[in-house]
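User: I'm curious whether this sequence folds into something compact or stays loose and floppy. Could you predict its structure so I can see for myself?
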Amino acid sequence: MFVHTIRTRDWIEKNVHTYIKRDLIPFEPGENSTDVIINGKHYNLTTLQQYDFAVYNNGTLSNSSYCYLTIPSVSQNMPIIFPNGSIVNGASCYSPFYPIGQRGIIGLAFAAMFAISILFTLVCLRKHGQLFIQQTKRFRVIGRRWQWYWALFVTACGMIACFSEVDVDRDYLPSAPIIIQTIFWYLSIPATLACVWESVRHWGSWQERQLYDADPFVYRNHDRRSKIEFYLPLVFYLFAWLNFFMNIPRNWLGFQAQADSSQTLNNFIPAVEDSRFKAGAVLAFCAWCIIPIHLWHSIHYYKPEASQKTFGRLRSIPPVFVLTISLSLVIIGYAEASAWVPGINLGGLKANSGYIYGLGFAPEILILLLHIINGLRNPNEDLELLRQRASRSEATDEMLGIDRRARKPRWWTHVANEFGFDNDAKLRALANTNIGHRRTEEEAGRDVRMHELARQHLDDEVTPESDIEEHFVDRPTRRDNVHVQSGLLDITTPPIRSGIHREPSEAPSFGSATTAVSQVQQQQIRSMLDV
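Assistant: Here's the prediction. I'll summarize afterward.
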């Protein structure tokens, strides 16, 4: 601890020339004992002393609440202090004064890259978030969208932080922009880890889905594999949220207190070296360790041909995951190092831009770029699953010797009465189609089949009554057809008799067609369906 304190003071001594020295200077006397002159403007000394205003050699007039510039370039905009303590006009110490520097220019370039990545992230979200197959409870569509949601959050944080770098360069004294860019960078750490985690987790889920689609019984629901996949996300997000609560909820005013070397030593360095930042980086590393564990688990269960040997497992890791996992580790390492070395901390006013962008923002940009390239290159999973199903169907047809070119088109299966390959299935479909069909008068007339009145070969024993009945034979009605077909399906149903062998109560009605045979005894109507 003592050695570390010495190194911190050495860093302050080396960089003290980069800070504006802030010392009290006496008021310039005016026309009388209660009048003082500040930057050519007269002020009441009693009012200044009453509200604890003091003049500093860095060109500021301030107390514990307000700070105004007193440099010659703002002599026309000096504050007016009334006896009641109210102040009008004046240029704040925290207003933009200097031109944009190297840090701000690089920040604008990175902010533009973050903004462009938002557009491509939305394209990938739309591409991979679309549904072409009805989702199941086991494979929700939200699972493949989470990595893009986290990517959008990372781009938003990075863009806000990098745009804030412009005002970090331009402000006369450090103010809110340096706090904003530090907060959003620390906020992007768990979001970046979550983006990498969701991409790795979903890759394993996609491998499982392909195997499950080919064979639904390939895995059990409550085995050791499913339990691991249930608890690993909980452990990861536990560490990620702990990192958030260690870093974000705090008093950030210490990062703003870098006006001079004394403020930096007494306020900024204790804020940077807070043990919560160090613990937060350790928790982020614990969350990072869950990512390769889950990747190893997915290869073990869903790449069985590669899980036998260690080299085979390493070859099965997608190269994009090797890069994104390594880059996320760089971010965690920089967060831990900046908690011990204030000179490279992102919130330092005089920190080197190489550390800030090379170790802070560049890994995030590269992770987003790799995800976008991978998302644009890979197809939608539903479409890929449909392609695999078609490929398996072709392989099955080829194995069975079925010529796919001779197969009926898809619309053929929707034609009436084509609901099966055997006669029983067709009869059942026909019975279900015709049940409840109402006979019309026209259909009843068509069911009467007229025979020729003159017969060449009549039996000598045929009576005139039977001859008349023979000329008009009643065909089985549609209802009779249903019963006949039902009889084919159920052997216990007796066949229905038709024609001249029916009982008088079962004789059909001929409707309007009976006018041609009015001499025949009128038939009984069995039901209103025959009318």
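Summary: The mean pLDDT is 80. Residues 147 and 195 are 5 Å apart (CA to CA).
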